[in-house]
Amino acid sequence: MVYIIGGDGTLRGAVKIFNEIQRRKLNVAVVGIPKTVDNDVGIIDRSFGFQTAVEMAQEAISAAHVEAESAPNGIGLVKLMGRHSGHIALDATLSSCDVDCCLIPENKFYLEGKGGLFEFLGIRLKEHGHAVVVVAEGAGQDIIPRSDSEKQKTDESGNPVFLDVGVWLNSELKRWWERDHKGELFTVKYIDPTYMIRAVTANATDNLYCTLLAHSAIHGIMAGYTGFVTGPINGNYAYIPMEDVAQAKSPVGTKDHKWAWVRSITAQPDFQFTT
């Protein structure tokens, strides 16, 4: 029995291992267990680690809110994990209710002009004196300036190397304020809790979920199945072909009710260009 635990990249590797075992006709069963805090594994309801990540992200947002409130024209900027999907940013925003703007990879945004981020934050600072911005690490990659060589860079898995949107946005916010509000007090408190979120012990919800995934995986193998991923679909635990899960994506649906809740709570713009 081989238990392979990880996210979409790990599961793609698991498919290759499974295929090679099948080619050699070995009596080895293979099962994948979906574990990634980003929650970007497709088909299943959620992956192990996500609930803990949201809980820790909420603590970072709370700290950013306190810091932003403590300074005139204060902005708390929090960068959260999520290269291709903004699930952590979205759920943490809904959980905290302290966020004024949530930026995710699935919803493009822009800085300047009518309906842009700067205009919105300027209004929010004028009304409330502070603001909190949450940005997923994959957001804004299309508008961050980069050289030709940076555009060609890939990591060891062949994925494009992302630039640090948190550092870039921190710099752009300060540049905007200095340009348009010269002489006025302004503070950006930038928080990047990435490794704090990744390194903590799983909370009770994730511990329970992990136990159920483990038991489900063992029962599936003992029943004679192989080449599957275990996970809940609409609350029912299922055995799903590993290749299907490895190829599936789980983006945030910007047309569904959860994103509508975010827009309602934050009152942020839809970032649609206007002429």
TrEMBL record:
Gene Ontology biological process: fructose 6-phosphate metabolic process
Pfam families linked: PFK
Keywords linked to the UniProt accession: Allosteric enzyme, Kinase, Magnesium, Metal-binding, Transferase
Highest taxon of the lineage: Eukaryota
InterPro entries, per database record: ATP_PFK, PFKA, Phosphofructokinase_dom, PKF_sf
One Gene Ontology MF term: metal ion binding
Cofactor(s) for this UniProt protein: Mg(2+)
Residue span, Phosphofructokinase domain: 2-219
This protein's name: Phosphofructokinase domain-containing protein
Organism: Lactuca saligna
Highest classification ranks of the organism: Eukaryota, Viridiplantae, Streptophyta, Embryophyta, Tracheophyta
